[in-house]
Design brief:
By secondary structure, the protein is α+β, with helices and mostly antiparallel strands. Helix content is 27%, strand content 28%. It contains five helices and nine strands. The strands form two sheets. A six-stranded antiparallel β-sheet has the order 1-2-3-9-4-7, with no helix packed on it. Strands 6-5-8 form a three-stranded antiparallel β-sheet, with no helix packed on it. It starts with a helix and ends in a 15-residue tail after the last strand.
Length: 190
């Protein structure tokens, strides 16, 4: 549905809502502070709706703005992406929108590699689903196992990959602008 089609449906929806509530244009005008002629033009489609006009009408009818506008139903939320193979790793994008925070499921094959730490703008969060993930971050060289997570500023020299003992499957959240991921965990014993 195009924006023009959505906007074209607002006027009839406003009229129907007002009539269902048995409210006159004069009464709605008094409640909202919008002139009778403006309300009439909105309902007939001769005036384009704006937030300044719709917000007081929504308040007067005690409905969400979405109900006045008739927001189309949300589409299928599932992300169906094709795997991408880069540098021997298979990445499944889990986000659809370009830019901003990106999520990936990653499968690193069993292989032993010499770490080659790199830096770039951003912030990364990793969560191991299965296998063992070796992370070299600055002076640290650690191995994460299933259920463990790590987060770091990607401006610190870093590298991650298989320990060479088997494949590793992990989730990666990456914010190119350096957004910090906030993960809330329940405290132990709670």
């Amino acid at each position: 549905m195009t924006t023009d089609e959505v906007l074209a449906g607002v006027g009839p929806r406003l009229r129907q809502m007002r009539k269902e509530r048995e409210v006159t244009l004069a009464a709605l005008s008094e409640i909202t502070g919008i002139s009778v002629s403006t309300l009439s033009r909105l309902e007939s489609g001769l005036r384009k709706p704006s937030l300044e006009l719709l917000l007081p009408i929504a308040r007067a009818h005690q409905v969400a703005l979405d109900e006045l506008v008739g927001v189309p139903p949300t589409g299928d939320p599932r992300v169906r992406s094709k795997p991408i193979v880069m540098g021997g790793r298979t990445h499944w994008p889990l986000t659809r929108q370009p830019g901003g925070l990106q999520a990936y499921k990653v499968l690193e094959p069993k292989r032993r590699q010499e770490p080659d730490p790199r830096t770039h703008e951003g912030y990364e969060w990793l969560y191991v689903l299965s296998g063992k993930l070796r992370i070299v971050l600055g002076e640290h060289d650690v191995v994460l196992t299933a259920g463990e997570a790590a987060e770091f500023d990607t401006r610190v020299p870093h590298w991650f990959g298989s320990t060479g003992e088997g494949p590793v499957e992990f989730l990666s959240l990456f914010g190119p602008q350096g957004e910090r991921m906030h993960v809330r965990a329940r405290p132990k014993g709670a």
